[in-house]
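Weekly sync, protein design subgroup
Attendees: M.S., D.O., the rotation student, P.L. (late)

Item 1: inverse folding check
M.S. brought a backbone from last month's batch and wanted to see whether the design step gives back something sensible before we order anything. D.O. pointed out we never logged the input encoding, so this time it goes straight into the notes. Structure tokens as presented (292 positions):
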């Protein structure tokens, strides 16, 4: 029972990071109808910025803020300078361009910083609390959960309680009608990319201190798992990204703890296959998705 409690707690923390990254994929899909395969590489660029700022200032929080800002600026720059110039009749040109961007960014990072892993110190201890002799969440796990919950709450408030959120939703689901009503759809797409990459950067910043360290490929596995989460939950559903992320995080933790780490990707693949067979649009997809 003690082991089960520990695995469930760590699974929720891991799932919160997956949910954040999956949410970033949902945001850019809703905004531009593109699966951004460069999301992991762009997030790692932001993490390198945070790493440099933390090393220069000695402040994790300054590095965190700088990393989020770098992710937001990179997202806006890629949308305005690259994605906006592509044909939009189908999602294929954007996806191909994103794959090319992955190669450029990862190669550039490897040339600039080298391929070696650089350890990043978390702001809190990773030793779990002991409650009644049972290990539970560590202070850093609690920080991850609180940060993810705050980010999710901020997005919920943005999309449901502000005029900007209303314009973002209108531009995503009815762009032509939104233009007629005076909504600047291109600007909304840029904001969508900005929010998306900043969110991915936050997820990567929360993940890297718990892994081997920072290198150009540090978020590759996170992207693979988060993409599966986004598909399972439904690419149009932020709620699906949250719930599926927590569920997959617990699944990976339990599989790793009771079977082996090598079996965890197979468990995720099996879940993804079952969902695609039974509900191809995702578990929380709307009954009628808008046409691209």
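Designed sequence read out in the meeting:
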């Amino acid at each position: 029972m003690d082991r089960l409690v520990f695995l469930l707690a760590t699974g929720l923390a891991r799932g919160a990071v997956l949910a954040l990254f999956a949410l970033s994929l949902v945001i850019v899909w809703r905004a531009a109808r593109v699966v951004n395969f460069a999301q992991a590489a762009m997030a790692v660029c932001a993490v390198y910025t945070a790493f440099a700022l933390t090393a220069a200032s000695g402040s994790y929080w300054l590095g965190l803020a700088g990393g989020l800002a770098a992710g937001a600026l990179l997202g806006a720059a890629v949308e305005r300078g690259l994605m906006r110039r592509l044909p939009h009749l189908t999602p294929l040109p954007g996806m191909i361009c994103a794959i090319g961007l992955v190669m450029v960014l990862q190669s550039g990072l490897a040339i600039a910083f080298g391929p070696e892993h650089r350890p990043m110190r978390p702001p809190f201890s990773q030793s779990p609390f002991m409650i009644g002799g049972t290990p539970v969440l560590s202070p850093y796990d609690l920080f991850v959960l609180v940060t993810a919950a705050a980010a999710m709450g901020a997005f919920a408030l943005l999309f449901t309680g502000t005029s900007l959120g209303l314009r973002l939703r209108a531009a995503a689901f009815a762009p032509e009608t939104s233009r007629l009503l005076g909504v600047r759809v291109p600007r909304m797409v840029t904001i969508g990319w900005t929010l998306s990459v900043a969110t991915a950067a936050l997820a990567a910043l929360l993940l890297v201190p718990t892994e081997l360290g920072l290198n150009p490929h540090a978020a590759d596995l996170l992207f693979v798992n988060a993409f599966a989460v986004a598909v399972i939950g439904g690419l149009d559903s932020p709620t699906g990204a949250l719930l599926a992320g927590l569920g997959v995080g617990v699944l990976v933790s339990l599989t790793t703890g009771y079977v082996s780490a090598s079996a965890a990707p197979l468990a995720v693949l099996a879940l993804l296959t079952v969902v695609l067979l039974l509900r191809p649009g995702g578990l929380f997809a709307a009954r009628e998705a808008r046409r691209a």
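Discussion: The chain has one domain: 2-112+139-278. The domain at 2-112+139-278 is CATH 1.10.3470 (ABC transporter involved in vitamin B12 uptake, BtuC).
Action: P.L. to compare against the previous round before Friday.
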